[in-house]
Amino acid sequence: MTADTFLGLIGSDSSLSIQGLTEDKRIVVLHELTGAHYAIDPAALRDVDAGELHDVLTGKREPEVLIGITRIVGYYSQTRNWNASKLGELKARRRGRYEV
Predict the structure, then answer these.
(1) In Å, how far from its chain's centre is CA 41?
(2) Exposed (0-12), middle (13-18) or buried (19+): which is 64, by Cβ within 10 Å?
């Protein structure tokens, strides 16, 4: 996929927006309906199908070349190595259920 195709993909879906760059120059994309953030390596875009990327960004399939990140405590953090309990907490936050 080219950079123009990627920008067109993000621009064509009102639930997706580019939030900026991480320290290692990955593009941060927000899915506004779920609150999920993804850090995308620009070099990996050339090997990704636009339809598959859209499905990952909108939660229709699990990411493979993407890294899930979140900004719960004021900074972006990768969710790749989180344990099941921490991932459950993140999912509850997305639903707005803050049970103890």
Answers:
(1) 11
(2) exposed
